[in-house]
# Entry
Amino acid sequence: MSTLAHTMMTARTAEAGLSAPADLDRYPYGEARPTDRLGAPAWDGGDGELGRVGRRTAGSRGRGLHGQLVQQLGQMIVSGDLGADRPLVPEEIGQRFEVSRTVVRESLRVLEAKGLVSARPNVGTRVRPVSDWNLLDADIIEWRAFGPQRDDQRRELAELRWTIEPLAARLAAGHGREDMQQRLGDMVEIMGHAFAQGDALTFSRADAEFHSLLIQLAGNRMLEHLSGIVSAALQVSGAPITGCDRPSDASLAHHGRIVDALANGDPIAAETAVRQLLTVHPEVERVVPAPREH
# Structure
């Protein structure tokens, strides 16, 4: 085993199956743990929508009150509990979540940058329609994937992967970067060891790294910019800690074929191997038919 593979394998968490600290804040919408500051009673005024959502609590992402408020409001908007054109009054938000006006203001700015809200003079801050959202934003992808739109989000991510990754593999086969190919091989080796040990977490991490490296190897900066979408897809397409390519012998074999095709400089074989890999997953198979045999 290479040094890189050995390092990743020995960096596993002390308790099998548990995420590392940086990953513990990623769990499904509606199943988050309560926090001291976000468990306040329903929003003053008796509003049914806000009161109902007020009983839901967002997990802390380790970003303090500002991050928690962004998470909570973002989930409320994406879930539809705060519908389009709904006014958001900073004073009410501050009272509801017991945070300062500064925290509210900064949180709304973050949501505005994501296209979820708009702030206009003499109009105030209002929720924007779905057509205005930045649907490629990692947070919005997660909120949709663990909210009422989960099925649509996962299907759309699968379709997008089917478009991005085969092309990336075809381009990557022409670059001959031995260092990158070695790292891809390392990831397959790690996945193999993790699969044998029943370590789904390490498998999914190596899997995500493999697909990110593959897109980087394509040498197309616009494709590389989309690598975060693929990472998000791997995180939300399956269970909370497993990726889209669930641990299996078939998945491992297809990853290995991709590495072999890249090493041989065979773009067609690389593209075909990626398509076969994506078709292994039943959610993708419902979206795109398996490639025809010629």
